[in-house]
Design brief:
A hairpin with a 2-residue loop joins strand 24 and strand 25 (364-369). Strands 7-4-6-5-9-8 form a six-stranded mixed β-sheet, with no helix packed on it. It starts with a helix and ends with a strand. The chain is of the alpha/beta class. It has helices spanning 4-13, 157-165, 204-214, 229-242, 260-266, 306-324, 378-383, and strands spanning 20-24, 37-38, 48-49, 53-56, 70-78, 92-96, 108-111, 115-117, 122-125, 135-136, 147-149, 170-174, 179-184, 188-189, 200-201, 219-225, 245-249, 270-274, 278-279, 285-289, 297-302, 336-340, 344-345, 351-361, 364-369, 386-390, 396-397, 402-407. It is elongated, with a radius of gyration of 31 Å. The structure holds adenosine monophosphate (AMP) and magnesium ion.
Length: 409
């Protein structure tokens, strides 16, 4: 049994960044840049007004006060999208809208709220203006040729705005990992088949596929395989051709008919680890298939119990998928803290993920640890809204103990 931190480190060591592909900008959010992007144009591309108001020469307002108003003649109105026709000379101004090109000769903008319409075609101003006020200067935000985004950046809507402003339509991004999902177990039937005594519905397939679709990983539903080595082997062999990552649930434990691990071995999958000091999820298997002419495939054997399978998926498979795409994994992140409302015994040699009802109390978050909880208890997990962690080395959570947690989304 290895520690969960050690397990993650071993996974990362085996997860090299995938190759690149081109993505349309509109579809590139949450993707990772495969190359640096430099600015093709300055931003803003021309001097323009940050306000609706009057473009003028600050020197004209040098002595303006309420008692000594200055009147300027208004030459024309410049709308956003237009460049003015006329040059602003001393004693003159131009009505200007936000985003419109600053006319020649003007060096400042006074907000419309600070100006008074005087006689027709005249504007009265009662305050001095700082030179350059409310003017967005060409290149003040981004210089032409400058580095906009570095290879490895995870694209956020803010970055999409920047790239769109540059007129960039396609970006080079890291390919997304293709994931195959297979449920194994003689007891499993899918939703379309009749449920005869002794059988259960497959929960893992739908749950894992749902989680993967949220994370943007194109996942292939490999269906259900029986606890029968030849059939399992045939399914896995063809799936491995198409996938970067295989996620198999069930049959990785020590039951008489658990055949997943021996089949992995037959297929040449090298075991990196089996069994991690966590609860739920202890029998987690991780291995790799190294092919001479193809890239390494990652193979996860998750425990069959659905809650354990999902915890393992979030704790270990998701960071691997992030790593394959070339960014520092940020999931899962237990950045919230709350106080346990009840005692809960746990195995001292393992980290336990505790399903809780979290709520805000007078002194911060309070965590009601759901009792009982177990890796096969689907109703229990569905009632939880938070997952807390109790560390290795502790044999009991006590009422009042602070625990790190995350929302269960
Ligand atoms: P195993 O890991 O194969 O020993 O399975 C552990 C438990 O999880 C057993 O009770 C199985 O019936 C159950 N199980 C395995 N696979 C699934 C699945 N896909 N959906 C729901 N329960 C499952
Ligand atoms: Mg089984």
């Amino acid at each position: 049994m290895i520690s969960p931190d050690e397990a993650l480190k071993l996974i990362f060591d085996e997860s090299p960044v995938l190759g690149e592909e081109t993505a349309a900008l509109a579809r590139s959010v949450d993707r990772v840049l495969a190359a640096d992007v430099r600015a093709q144009v300055a931003l803003p591309a021309f001097d323009n007004s940050a306000m609706d108001g009057f473009a003028l020469r600050a020197a004209d307002l040098k002595d303006a006060t309420a008692n000594n108003p200055v009147e300027l003649s208004v030459l024309e109105t410049v709308r956003a999208g237009e460049t003015g026709r006329l040059e602003v000379k001393p004693g003159e101004a131009v009505r200007i809208m936000t985003g419109a090109c600053l006319p020649r000769g003007a060096d400042s903008v006074v907000m419309v709220e600070m100006a008074e319409e005087a006689a027709p075609g005249m504007v009265r101003l009662t305050q001095a203006a700082r030179r350059g006020s409310h003017v967005r200067v060409r290149g003040e935000d981004v210089l032409e040729g400058s580095l906009l985004l570095e290879k490895g950046a995870l694209l956020r809507p803010y970055d999409i705005a920047l790239l769109a402003a540059q007129g960039i339509m396609d970006v080079a991004v890291v390919r997304r990992p293709r994931v195959g999902v297979l449920s194994t177990g003689d007891e499993l039937v899918d939703a379309r088949e009749p449920l005869v005594p002794g059988k259960i519905r497959d929960s893992n397939g739908p749950a894992l596929l749902a989680a993967l679709s949220r994370w943007g990983a194109p996942a292939e539903n490999l269906g259900i395989a029986p606890d029968e080595p030849a059939a399992l082997r045939a399914t896995l062999e063809s799936a491995l051709e198409r996938s970067d990552v295989l996620v198999v649930t069930g049959g990785v434990s020590v039951g008489d008919f658990d055949c997943t691990k021996p089949v992995f071995a037959e297929l040449g999958i090298r075991e990196v680890f089996w069994k991690v000091a966590i609860k739920p999820g202890k029998p987690l298997f991780f291995g790799v298939l190294e092919k001479r002419d193809a890239r390494t495939k990652l193979v996860f054997g998750l425990p069959g119990n659905p809650i354990a399978a999902l915890v393992c998926l979030e704790e270990f498979v998701r960071p691997a998928l992030e790593r394959l795409q070339g960014f520092a994994p940020k999931h899962p992140s237990y950045h919230l803290s709350g106080a346990a409302l009840n005692d809960y015994p746990k195995p001292a040699d393992r980290r336990q993920y505790l399903f809780c009802r979290a709520r805000r109390g007078p002194g911060g978050y309070e965590l009601d640890i759901i009792r009982p909880q177990g890796s096969a208890m689907l109703g229990m997990a569905s009632r939880a809204n938070a997952l807390a962690i109790a560390s290795e080395g502790v044999d009991r959570v006590r009422r009042g103990d602070p625990l790190f947690f995350r929302w269960l989304k």
